[in-house]
Amino acid sequence: MKLIRFRQDGMVKTGVIEGEKYLDTSSFGEDYNERFFETEGLVRLQAFVNENRAVLPVVPADVSLDCPFGRPSKIICIGLNYADHAKETNAAIPKEPIVFFKSTTAIVGPNDDVMIPKNSEKTDWEVELAVVIGKKASYVEEADALSYVAGYCLHNDISERAFQLERGGQWVKGKSCDTFAPLGPFMATRDEIENVDALRLWLSVNGKMMQDGTTANLIFNIPYLVSYLSHFMTLLPGDVISTGTPAGVGLGFNPQIYLKPGDVMELGIDGLGTSRQLVKAWQ
């Protein structure tokens, strides 16, 4: 299944994508949130769609999309998880995953505007594969880790590099500004993605390709990350793990390139759709 949430009549509603159709599943009566995932929501939703497909309202394809799931308890990000990205930023290849958090208040829809924060001069882009946890995970074995994954989605891990690297403390300050986590357009359930270790991911700015990589080059793959993180914290249903970005970020250019008002980012991942964000100044 491909899960969406969309805005209509002043509300955020749930839906699914089937072929070219967007179907409204509001009558299912549940948001796609922690409670949904922890109570076999994906199984129940599929049964509901199978039984009611013929009568579910069709949503216009140009509907305004929200994040495809309700606000998670946490967004956990992995830094420097592609060797080419580590190299371009003059960083050593990590021996263990570099872990940081991104505030959930940064979440916006896939095509919403991205706002350059107040006093920012170094706002940057990062296309990433996001993993959505499907059930409570604690001390998970790597061999079993994928069974804890509900699905995957596209994420633009927007980053303010001065806040992140020049202001002391942890990276979270440069990762958590409002609008810094566009997610979607949809969440694809695990069975929708044939080989998550071989997905092309790309990002362009104003039509110029900046990032063009593959998840085959992840230093730490998804089963390893789920297992690893579960040894340091309990992963709750609906939690997001953002798995890192390939080379081509603004920080890595010489001279460096950063976003400015009016810029347009477009990005995508095989099987997970595309998104587009217009950059605006803080106001």
UniProtKB/TrEMBL annotation:
Domain Fumarylacetoacetase-like C-terminal per the UniProt entry, residue ranges: 74-279
GO BP annotations listed: carboxylic acid metabolic process
One of the record's GO molecular function terms: isomerase activity
A Pfam family of this chain: FAA_hydrolase
Family assignment from sequence similarity: Belongs to the FAH family.
Residue ranges the record marks as coiled coil: none
Protein name, UniProt field: 2-keto-4-pentenoate hydratase/2-oxohepta-3-ene-1,7-dioic acid hydratase (Catechol pathway)
Record PANTHER family: FUMARYLACETOACETATE HYDROLASE DOMAIN-CONTAINING PROTEIN 2A, FUMARYLACETOACETATE HYDROLASE DOMAIN-CONTAINING PROTEIN 2A-RELATED
Species of provenance: Sediminibacterium ginsengisoli
Classification of source organism: Bacteria, Pseudomonadati, Bacteroidota, Chitinophagia, Chitinophagales
Keywords: Metal-binding
